[in-house]
Amino acid sequence: MKVGVFINPAADTPVDAIVAQAQSADRQGFDSVWLGDHLIDYRLAPAVADGPPDSFTVMAAIGAVTTRIRLAWGMLNPSFRNPAHLAKMLATLDQLTKGRVICSLGAGWLKPEYDAYSVPFIDAHDERVAHGREVAQLLKELWTRPAPDKVTFEGTYVRTSELQFNPAPYRKPHPPIWIGGDSDETLATVKELADGWVPLFRREPTSIREVRSAPDWPDRPMSIVRVTRMLVGESWEDIEQDARQAYEIVQNTATIDAPETFEDFVAREVIGSPMQCRQRVEELGQAGIDNLLVTFESAEEQDRAARLLLPLL
What we know:
There is one protein chain. It is built from eleven helices and twelve strands. The chain has helices at residues 15-28, 55-65, 83-96, 111-116, 125-144, 184-193, 205-212, 236-253, 262-268, 274-286, 299-308, and strands at residues 2-7, 32-35, 70-73, 103-105, 151-154, 159-163, 177-180, 196-198, 223-228, 230-232, 270-272, 291-294.
């Protein structure tokens, strides 16, 4: 099981603090670091001058000051950048980091940021997913057919004409493409062309098993990510108060997928002593989940997880 850290700063968090947390995750042995990709604060908090920064620029800085941790987004918005230019940006970052890029793509959803930045917004969800599917198709095409080949792509939403793409990415055949989302249309894209799936709801092992047992689930290797909270202490008593505080945060902020009781919250997340957490991680792994994506509320929480749990995984 691989554990990634999702850095979810407050709107006015200095960019230096974001980079520093990623450096800590790199030293501590986490597998990946993830950034959000929004033009405005997705919580629609009052705007401040210091944030949020551009996620791609910050990720390039993280790549420059880390050595082994993989780089991903939760999730890259395929509408914010010209698709062929996005392919060049990702391939360049992959070259700079010697193959550490994960191309984690969503479909976009926060209409106010589109309106504020005058980015065209596709109202229909299924059409946004279809647009994202064409972006993923183009990325693969360009990354596996670099110059001097000429790539002409004629989709409904995405087009190129005799494009001689460069640079080729460092990783061969290309950086892994992980698709985020839970709709039937998104799952169809995952099955067709993705290297990984990031369910954005906390699907339990039984649900993951059902999806993976479908006749059309691909035979190729497929990473499956679970978004979770991780609270690890020497014993349950050490962690119970933190867990109750985390539950209150979820109850007060979650608009979907909120647990009904504290016991439900503990049962679905990775919370407890090192051995309790290891048992929960093994349960998730048996369902086919091989990556955990964790948001820590403090540097102390992140450090405890690294010291007490990562060695057991």
